[in-house]
Amino acid sequence: MGDPALSRRGFLAASAAAGVSMTALSACGGDSDGESSSGTTTIEWWNISTTQPTKDVWAALAKQFEAQNPKVKVKIVQLENDAYKSKMTALTASGKLPDIFHTWGGGVLKQQVDAGLVEDLTDRTKDWAGDLLPVAREPYLIDDKAYGIPFDIGMIGFWYNKALFQRAGISAPPTTWTGFLDAVRKLKAAKITPLALAGKEKWPGMYYWAYLAMRTAGADALRKAGDAKDFTGEEFVQAGQHLQELVDLQPFQKGFLGAAYSSPTGQAAAVGNGKAAMELMGQWAPVVQADAGKGLGADLGFFPFPAVEGGKGALTEVFGGGGGHALRAGAPQAAVDFLKFFASAATDTVLVEKTGVLPLVPAAESALKDPNLKAVQTQLKAATGFQLYLDQAYAPALGQEVNDSVAALIAGSRSPKQVTESITKVAKEEQ
């Protein structure tokens, strides 16, 4: 399916690092030097920033922190996404985690917390964490306690071609599902491909079902279903039925089932080259559209996923995710100090300006220049509910089944009810 987590940030750079040194791979989390005889504390920071410009920006920030804290040494261990996940799985099993480590929150973080391996940051960060964008903190809250601090947040929404909308006689982006389907029909009538989809990779299709489930059942329904191991509720079936309505209109580009996301003939390029009017994708979409195709410039617009009439969800409930840092249980105060430094207005401004993330503190918002990213930021600030990407919110096997089942519905080989039944079956098997 392609790795969704890697896709969401990794496509912002041309390529990921091909590998890491044996020293990095053999490093043992939780075994940092601590306080040495010279009184210097070494903290180990594991992250996945192997691509530029983030790699160099983060290294410079670590040096800056060291300069401000002469008795602290930051040891950076950088691993490519898949290698990082594998190594962290092994370290979790061994009971030893790094002082500071990358986390997406959700299911994996909960497993680590349940094993007693992660520091509860609620009290140790309460004096400053409250300044961060509330929706960005949600993936790291478990039982109302904070186990991670975000450095990045984003959301999924529709990116559209204003010129193609105008040609099809669509005066404004739709705000309801019925209106959205009408817009699809108008685009088809004007001989314009309404939507681009990377059917080969599966995770982009999952976004449709996830949002429709949120709109029909409400923002909290997917979390409750995950906890109950039961997705067979009528509103989840309805989500599939609404997606089926869209699929029946044949809205996607020719050959979409074999299309990748970021290839020259894929989903992003179809929109970036003006071959399709819309795609449902995250805040990174404009960069990938321009990289894989030509990009739309001023013709590119953004709108939130429409409301479903009669549904319990609202336009202000968003689906997305980002990245954060967590600490091993018993991590030294220097590690907490580093998180505070990384979440400061000065650091956040650097991250916004140089790495393209959305601002998490109000003081960094002035660094955000792109009008479409400002539109995303406005939606995030107004969010009244938040759902983490399903393939990160749930345990890996369940997230994979959601992707596979929805892909089967879009391909015409599974019904809306069968989707809910197959997801529930895998959820129960994981008990």
Quick overview:
The chain has about 425 residues and is α/β, with parallel strands linked by helices. It contains 19 helices and 13 strands.
Keywords:
431 residues; seven-stranded mixed sheet; 13 strands; 44% helix; disordered N terminus
What is the first-to-last residue Cα distance? 25 Å
Q: Radius of gyration, rounded?
A: 22 Å
Q: What is the global morphology?
A: globular
Described by strand count, sense and barrel closure, the largest sheet is: 7 strands, mixed
The number of helical elements comes to 19
- The portion of residues forming beta strands comes to 5-15%
Helix percent band: 40-55%
Mean pLDDT: 90
Helix and strand composition category: alpha/beta
Question: Which runs of at least 5 residues are low in confidence (pLDDT < 50)?
Answer: 1-33
Strand segment tally: 13
What does this 3D model show about the protein?
The protein has helices at residues 4-10, 22-26, 54-68, 81-94, 106-114, 134-137, 162-167, 177-189, 203-217, 221-228, 234-248, 267-272, 285-292, 333-342, 345-355, 371-381, 390-393, 396-411, 416-429, and strands at residues 34-35, 41-47, 72-78, 100-103, 141-142, 145-146, 149-155, 157-161, 193-195, 276-281, 300-303, 317-327, 385-388. The protein is an alpha/beta fold and 431 residues long. Strands 1, 2, 3, 4, 7, 12 and 13 form a 7-stranded mixed beta sheet that branches. Strand 1 (34-35) and strand 2 (41-47) form a beta hairpin. The longest helix has 16 residues, at 396-411. The two termini are 25 Å apart. The model is unreliable at 1-33 (pLDDT under 50).
